[in-house]
Design brief:
The complex is a heterodimer of chains A (199) and B (266). Chain A folds into two domains: 49 residues, Helicase, Ruva Protein, domain 3, CATH 1.10.8.420; 128 residues, 3-Layer(aba) Sandwich (Dna Topoisomerase Vi A Subunit, Chain: A, domain 2). Chain A is 42% helix and 10% strand. Chain A contains eight helices and six strands. In chain A, the strands form two sheets. Chain A has a four-stranded parallel beta sheet with strand order 4-3-5-6. A two-stranded antiparallel ribbon of chain A has the order 1-2. In chain A, a hairpin with a 6-residue loop joins β1 and β2. In chain A, α1 packs across α2. The longest helix of chain A is centred in the first third of the chain and has 17 residues. Chain B is of the alpha+beta class. Chain B is built from seven helices and seven strands. The termini of chain B are far apart. The chains are: A alpha/beta (199), B alpha+beta (266). Chains A and B meet through α7 and α8 of A and α1 and α2 of B.
Chain lengths: 199, 266
Amino acid sequence: MYEGVIQNLIDELGRLPGVGPKGAQRIAFHLLAADQADVKRLADALIEVTERVRFCRTCGNVAEAEECRICLDPRRDPTVICVVEEPKDVAAVEKIREFRGRYHVLGGAISPIDGVGPDELRIKELMTRLTDGTVTELILATDPNLEGEATAAYLARLVKPMGLRVTRPASGLPVGGDLEYADEVTLGRAFEGRRLLDV
Amino acid sequence: MQLYRDDGIVLRTQKLGEADRIITVLGRSTGRVRAVAKGVRRTKSRFGARLEPFTHVDLMLHPGRSLDVITQAEVIRPYGQRLAGDYPRYTAGTAMLETAERFTPEEKEPALRQFLLLVGGLRALAEGVHDSRLVLDAFLLRSLAVAGYAPALTECARCGAGGSGPAAAGGKASRVVPPGQHGAGRNVSAFAIAAGGTVCASCRPPGAASPAAATVALMLALLRGDWDGADRSERRHRVECSGLVAAYLQWHLEHSIRSLRHVERV
């Protein structure tokens, strides 16, 4: 146990995900030994992020204004919407630099066992975006796990009467992996979605 | 410590740290076990999709201080694949997993009958021969029976009188109870959750439900595995049956089953 303010800092750091009591103590003493300007910059960044960051009113992504950078960008294709679970997934898809459409962040996946049903997600907002007829394709990029698959199945059924093109990213073998270590489910999916090699 | 092997159904997964998961499994011989699967959330994980809920897996485990560690996993049947693509079946299946978890409160306490019931229930759900809500209600009623809470459906839960009334062959038959016996001649006409099932007119407590005769007959069919009778039932009786089963289950478990609220009817 330390004196008041140091212990306060250790306690606060220990509440962060993935930081245990020892880790919190290490970070606290690192900050005490660090240059004061660096620590101030970190403190300012923490305060700024809580004050300025909010969720985009259109897509639910993190934003610094009413709408996020992607929704405000006129060069992005408004006819394609990629549906993801979390803002982190927007960043992951953006990294491929291939997708030029827009996003919709659900805020999670349907998981009845955790008490999360369709009403707890931003599905109503998605349906509102689809009503004006601009969108022609919906990419359901929820996680390739059970909850993500169930959420995609639910959404696909919901938008079916609208006659949109509904797609889901392929699942299969990871690039750079060995075939023998692939599990049966993933390997089965990879075979289902095999494609013609036109050489 | 000694490695051990068991097969089981994955009930639930929870994120742990950066890339690990805590997997709750209902094992055939070990009962409910919580174990850590390391690195399972990475795309290159050697466990891959093997440890998703609904999967029947063959596991090798290493006993740990607080949680065991999964060292190997092989798929026996991936029921989740079939269920995730069909929302009503997925929600019914999730309610089955949550109920199985609630009925096995003690870790590592063998629960073979509950395990076999769950495997049978998931198989029936994946095959899709019967209505998913009927499969769920049959599973819930039989889980209650395994745990010793089977509802009385052919006699009064309080005085034991009955045999006639709604439960007996849709209310047509009337087995006469000898005169002089308590409750004799009175039909079991109501369903009282706290009393433990159907009750006769003289034992009926205030607030007891008055289900249709066919609803009680449906509950009995589901409990006994009479699928011909259950499949022929009407939708309104199925809805009433689901409501009664859900209320009865949660009252006797003394716990709510969160998934039941989200179960969708076809």
